[in-house]
Design the sequence.
């Protein structure tokens, strides 16, 4: 049974709040499993209604007058008693019945049971919901297992993770034996990724063919969702989705619209790109015209990179047999796209509350290109990703840090090298991405003083 940080978030929610909890995110990221696991560990009476598997369940809402009547119908429909305080009602695949979300407020106010909801495609489908129950429902975005969750799942000890975290915080070198072991583990993560089904398949069998089969099942589901949920733009969305691996493998990794159509324009395809982002399938990284705070006002939406939501899925789309080449760290492979996808995935998943890092990159003809630019603690932090041995070659990074108008005091280079610090540049082993978390601003109290 895979444990992950998500389990703690769910438990903490119900310990501190009476609100309903909505888990949203891409398909196959473990939302349903997580709710069932919480219910079992808390010894709750679980009543589960899946609106995708049971098309008739939506009729429970027809003509219903109040929460007590709805609960009565649910009890009769599922043939389960609702016992006060010890029942968790779980509405799954709510994108198939978005009207259920409008009833969350009344179910929470009624207060006789805990409420959980889950669904894929909600970023796409939420626009059809008439009334969002603000103040009555908390939301957790569920991502694939990040590297830390994966490492724990395959047996990495708490003691090793603590050692790594201390090295990260103090910026000291990692023990050489530990460092080499973690590089092997990160290469394993590159090909398995964080989709729970793929991770579990590896734990159960250690067979990478079984893992790859699971990954292709998930990709098939994604393509099926594209054809099912957006009938107008499905051809454009499908083309973009299928081009992600080759575009990332190109020299500058930027998504080139002309590879879709010689006369393609961003405005025409904007809805398709937005659909992939809102569905949780892809991670966009927008160019900024200047790396200064706030990045959002400098973003150029027509220039972007597009990463997959899971690095293992990306690796499975490349040539068959690449898995063992990655594990053996063969030098004739272009790791750049896979490493950058890993960085995008980790930074997106690591945040406080319900938000991770917003991702940007910077490209200037004079200064060069930075792989990623993020905001952290009120500062701009540029990030370079190096998969080869020449990790100290980063002219663009040096140029940008030297530019006084940008006020950049530090930069990170993630590579296969051990941790070291040279002036403004911190060289981090790539596995230390697990500690790159978006931090919550501190000391936000401000009291106005009237004279």
Sequence:
């Amino acid at each position: 049974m895979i444990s992950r940080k998500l389990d703690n978030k769910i438990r903490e929610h119900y310990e501190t709040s009476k609100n309903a909890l909505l888990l949203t995110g891409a398909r196959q990221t473990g939302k349903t499993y997580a709710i069932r696991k919480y219910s079992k560990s808390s010894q709750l009476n679980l009543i589960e209604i899946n609106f995708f598997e049971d098309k008739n369940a939506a009729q429970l809402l027809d003509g219903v007058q109040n929460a007590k009547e709805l609960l009565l119908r649910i009890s009769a429909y599922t043939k389960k008693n609702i016992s006060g305080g010890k029942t968790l009602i779980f509405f799954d695949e709510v994108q198939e019945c978005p009207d259920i979300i409008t009833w969350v407020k009344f179910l929470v106010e009624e207060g006789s049971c805990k409420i959980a909801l889950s669904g894929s495609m909600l970023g796409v489908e939420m626009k059809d919901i008439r009334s969002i129950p603000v103040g009555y429902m908390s939301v957790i975005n569920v991502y694939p297992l990040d590297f830390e969750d994966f490492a724990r799942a395959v047996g990495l000890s708490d003691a090793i993770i603590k050692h790594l975290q201390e090295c990260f915080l103090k910026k000291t070198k990692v023990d050489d034996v530990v460092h080499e072991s973690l590089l092997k583990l990160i290469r394993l993560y590159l090909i398995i990724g964080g989709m729970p089904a793929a991770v579990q398949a590896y734990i159960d069998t250690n067979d990478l063919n079984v893992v790859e089969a699971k990954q292709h099942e998930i990709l098939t589901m994604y393509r099926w969702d594209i054809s099912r949920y957006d009938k107008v733009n499905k051809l454009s969305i499908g083309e973009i989705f299928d081009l992600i691996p080759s575009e990332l493998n190109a020299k500058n990794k930027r998504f080139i619209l002309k590879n879709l159509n010689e006369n393609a324009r961003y405005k025409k395809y904007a809805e398709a790109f937005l659909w992939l982002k809102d569905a949780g399938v892809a991670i966009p990284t927008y160019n900024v015209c200047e790396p200064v705070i706030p990045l959002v006002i400098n973003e150029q939406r027509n220039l972007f990179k597009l990463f997959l939501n899971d690095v293992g899925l990306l690796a499975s789309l490349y040539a068959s047999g690449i898995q063992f080449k990655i594990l053996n760290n063969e030098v004739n492979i272009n790791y750049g796209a896979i490493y950058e996808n890993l960085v995008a995935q980790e930074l997106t998943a690591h945040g406080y509350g319900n938000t991770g890092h917003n991702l940007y990159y910077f490209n200037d003809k004079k200064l060069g290109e930075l792989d990623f630019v993020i905001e952290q603690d009120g500062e701009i932090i540029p990030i370079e990703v190096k998969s080869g041995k020449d990790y100290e070659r980063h002219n663009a990074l040096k140029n940008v840090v030297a530019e006084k108008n940008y006020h950049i005091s530090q930069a990170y280079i993630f590579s296969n090298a051990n941790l070291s610090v040279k002036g403004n540049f911190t060289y981090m082993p790539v596995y230390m991405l697990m500690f790159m978390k978006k931090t919550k601003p501190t000391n936000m109290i401000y009291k106005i003083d009237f004279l």
